[in-house]
Amino acid sequence: MAKAEHIAQLRSRFQATVAKLTAKFGEGALTTSEFRDNFRVHTEPERLYAVLEYLQVGCGFDMLVELCAADYLHYPDARNRYGIWYALLNVATGERIIVKTFANDPDPAVPSVFRLWKGSDWMEREVYDMYGVVFTGHPDLRRILMPDECSSFPLRKDYPLRGRGERHNFPTITRAES
User: Fold this and answer.
1) CATH number for the domain harbouring residue 98
2) Model-level pTM?
3) What is the domain range of residue 69?
């Protein structure tokens, strides 16, 4: 199958999924975008959990492949500070879809999807640790990469490139102790 035919087939599947979402949540509840073979649905944080739950139960997207974030501070024409996206896979058909939402300062928060996908546990903790986005309803939201003493979020665009002096407070661990 030629690449153009493959992308057309993926687009057709995506449009069918979007039609189901639109029937469930109404016109204007979601927006879509695509880049090459990445097909995305954009939704508000208030509707995020319901959309993801419907995609899992009603459309067969049974695997959360990736949960990531980005800081759009100083990004041209950005209206929101943080973008959070969920890459989902329908294991039976191989179809993939990306669901994207946004959060803003001073208290960026989105609902946790831990009840839908247990594997989101550490993914949500990583996004919290690096960006400070709170996942409401998460059973154990605490730092996973940075030390507990760290009071900032290193992947935020306003975080200084040389840090804030946190490393000077960390205990030195030798190779034998690690």
Assistant:
1) 3.30.460.80
2) 0.88
3) 3-169
